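Ticket opened by: R.M.
Priority: normal
Category: complex prediction / small molecule

The reporter submitted a protein together with biotin and asked that the result be attached to this ticket for the collaborator who will pick it up next week. Submitted input follows.
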Amino acid sequence: MEQSVTFLKPSLVRSQLATEIIGRRIIYFRNIDSTNTCALEMAARGVPEGTVVIADEQTRGKGRLGRHWRSPPGKGIYLSIVLRPRIKVEFLAYFSIISALAVAETVEGLSPFPPDIKWPNDILLHHRKVAGVLVELGTENDLVSYLIVGIGLNLLQKEEDFPSELRGKATSILIEGGKVFCREEVVVKLLQNFDHWYKVLLTSGATPIMQRWRDYSHHWIGKEVKVVTPEGEFFGISEGIGDDGRFLVRKGDGELKEVWAADIVSLQEVNK
Ligand code: BTN
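Result attached by the on-call engineer:
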């Protein structure tokens, strides 16, 4: 039997939100191709910083590295935030890091145990992905003119809502904690956490952010990993992240590799 979908109430989010920057404007769709695609178009047309595009369902949700993000109606949080920081492209990694932090803190408030962040911004519960972040941008002369942070969080999915190829790899807050949370409340918390870390980055720089990020990702240090990059893959021991947000891996021959864009696979998990 088809389950009925409870639609999100953006007015409830607006009335509960206590933020300075994020969520100044909230644009809601019941159904859209991708909130990131929509936010990119709106940013190019000049919507203000802090605008949030949110949808109940995405038909062409985008994941990292060209992948698809499954976005069934009413089950998850699918939203994109427009930012306009005056930064050079080389500082982009920090936005990925604050996004992961905001999502991890939100998940921690919903789950019986804390999540783990897998570089750069996968949020895991029991080694399965519960949320992901896709950062896209528009540039002009080496400067960022706008930046879109897209967040997908699996909230109400049951095991059978995931296709067979994702079972064992993806999870939801409902699966892990057995609780049904109100999506509006989760969106409010997520936007507030993001607002907090964005202001920390603008006012205090990266140091407090990197410290907090390492709290959530220390399990990865010293682990044998496979690094899958667009150019190929290699193996090594993880040394965590550098101060600029790059992932550091020591190869068997002693060379330290600094990685910008990749998927990290823990060999311990694979071999279990
Ligand atoms: C990942 O691969 O881990 C990133 C997933 C990001 C998904 C979100 S859902 C809202 C926003 N709109 C998209 O099309 N993608 C992001």
